[in-house]
Structure formats: C-alpha cells, structure tokens
Here is the input.
Amino acid sequence: MMSRRTLASALAAGAIAVPMPRLPSAESPPRARNVVLVHGLFADGSSWSEVIPRLQAAGLNVTSVQNPLTTLDAAVAETQRVLARQDGPTVLVGHSFAGMIVTEAGVHPKVSALVYVAARAPDAGEDYTALAKKFPTPPASAGIVFDGDEGRLTEVAFLRDFAGDVPEARARVLYAVQEPFHQAILTGKTTQAAWHSKPSFYAVSTEDRTINPDLERFMAKRMGATTIEVKASHLSLISHPREIADLILQAAGRS
Here is the structure.
C-alpha cells in the first residue's frame, strides 16, 4: 500500500500511475523499435517536438505523422502508410482527436502497443459525440469557429483552454501553426477498436479544458489501460513531455 506521504509526493510531482483493472488483452508489450506519433485537431506534427528527442535518446526510431485533418478515413490511411514503413514492433501514439486514428489503425500487425494522450478512445462503431455528451462540456468547445468548412480555435480559446499551462510565448507560436480541420472529420466513426487486442496506455490531463478529464478517465478505465494522471492542460505533450515520454517508453518495453 502507498503511504499518505508517498501519495502526496507523487501528486505534487504532477503524475502518478493509477492502478486500473486490466483486460486480458492488456499484457506487457513486446520491446518496440519504433514509435509513430499522431497529432489531433488544432495542431500539426510539430506538437510532438518536446517528446521526440526523449524517445530518440532511448534509441527509438520516431516518426510524427502529418494528419491531413480532412476525414477520419484519410487520417487513418496516412497513418497506415507510415506504419507500413516501420521495421519491427511499433508503438502507436495519439493525442486528442488522434485517439480515433490510433483506435482504428492500431490493429495494424506492426503495432505492439497503443498510447493515448488526453485522447479520444471510442469503441468500434461508437458515436463519440454522444459519449462525450454524458459529461460536462469542456470550455474549449465554445471557442471553435468556422470559416466555411474549416474549423479552428480562436486565439483566446487556444491560449486559455487548449494550451493553458504552456508559457504564453510558446503557446502563441503553436497557435500560429494551428492547422484548420474539415468538418467532415468530426463525423467519422471507428469500425474497430484496437485497444481490445493491444496493450494500451493512457495519460489523463487533470486540468484539461478541451476534453473532460472524467471522460478521459472513463475511457482509460474501460479499455483497462495502464494509466497516469498528469496535472496539465490538454497539451501535456508540450508542458509535461518527460511524463508523456516515460509512458511511451513503458509501452515500448524500454522501462
């Protein structure tokens, strides 16, 4: 049992592993050689820039997918093309909306484990929007604006609700490279859920204002994921890259 003092210290450090019931499929993953990272909405592949060098330093081959943000099918296809180029076991990681992509593309035979970072984690055929409505709506939703078919976050919403714990100067740079998404990507549904058959890991952002943290906890528990909680905004991969990298290394059998 963890003592009260140890628990308090772990919480103060910003991340603590939370024991979750494990599914039969959630076995210890094999040692991976590669990591494929997928970004979500309001971002591009550079959002992984703080995590990538930490993984490379551990000897992993790392690729950040440039998600087209057009349709779920197109995003999955782009991810599958990257997976096909990998040599050996590969950890597939998704942030935010990219959890949809990880859930669908993760059945690829080269994928040895899945990592969700404050990410959507639907079941096969599940209506994620309907699932999300069972929890209080996060503030960032009110900050989405559309220019025709293309959606993006306003600057105020981006800085406050998406990147709330990222230094403002850095957050403004991330806002400047924000990729607009097409409305069609929001209507896609997964046809399969890789987390039923692959070891899965989840990083919950406890201060998230883009996806409700309790929804993240629900999805992580449902999949039987090895779970950590990080005291971070939705952009934990930027504000807490060490914790996120360590979780990916665990999924890669490197820790």
Notes: DSSP finds ten helices and ten strands in the chain. Confidence is low (pLDDT under 50) at residues 1-26. The first strand starts at residue 15 and ends at 18. The radius of gyration is 17 Å.
